[in-house]
Amino acid sequence: MHLTYGGFVIEHLTFDNYLAIFRSADWYYAVGFTVFYAVTTVFIQLVLGMIIALVLERLTTGRGWMMALLLVPWSMIVVVAAQLWRYMYDASFGIITWLLGFMGVESPLILGQPASAIAATMIADTWKATPFVAIILLAGLVMLPRDINEAADVDGAGAWRKFWQVTLPQLRAAVSVAILFRLLQAFSVFDLPFVLTGGGPGIATQSLAVMGYKTLFQDLNFGPGAAIATTTGILVLGACLLFLRMFKAQVDEEGI
After folding, report:
1. What is the tens place of the pLDDT at every residue in 102-153?
2. Closest Cα partner for 168 from 141, 136, 150?
3. Domain contains 71
4. How far is it, in rounded angstroms, from Cα 90 to Cα 96?
5. Is residue 44 part of a domain?
6. What radius of gyration, in Å, describes the C-alpha atoms of the chain?
């Protein structure tokens, strides 16, 4: 079959590039790492963001200053933040390595070991993205009606019970928005691991986006690189549609 498009002649259409990546162990590792990275970081950021939002919501003075300080990590360019953390993890002069040694913890090359490199990347991502989650949840908390909480106080509900049975259900929309935005960003993570570890050591921190970049622009394998980019987009779209479907089902069930 011959197709002419834009001056180029395409001899035939094939799925060989997709078959090639589906047979690649590196692609499956990149998928597993990306999913693990996204789920883990989003969960941690959601918990920390909720704690920060609850604290800020109860502040009567200084909330504006605290929010401005909180937004500093989020406003920082990702490449700059990644380079900053790379300096702190450095084996020779990194402050984190020094602190571990000061506490008597024998610290190997943090970015040179697969497990510690993955953890280090997640910590840097959590430091940067948690303020974004906290601000979204704080906006939801401020908009909650006070009468329901006051009724719970009258009924003698404790703080923990009031949070789980009164506050959290009303925050479902804000939580869903935070999760959705963070999942989109986490599934397409590229700049942080690329600058921090280069996808290493080996392929330990190689996300799908990093793998696609290396295949396309470093190895100049345009066919497999385009296939990796396409499958990444499909996976992200599928995850978002599944999450939105689950959220809509909960809303319809509760009649919100």
Report:
1. 787 766 678 888 999 999 999 999 999 999 999 999 988 888 777 766 666 6
2. 141
3. yes
4. 8
5. yes
6. 23
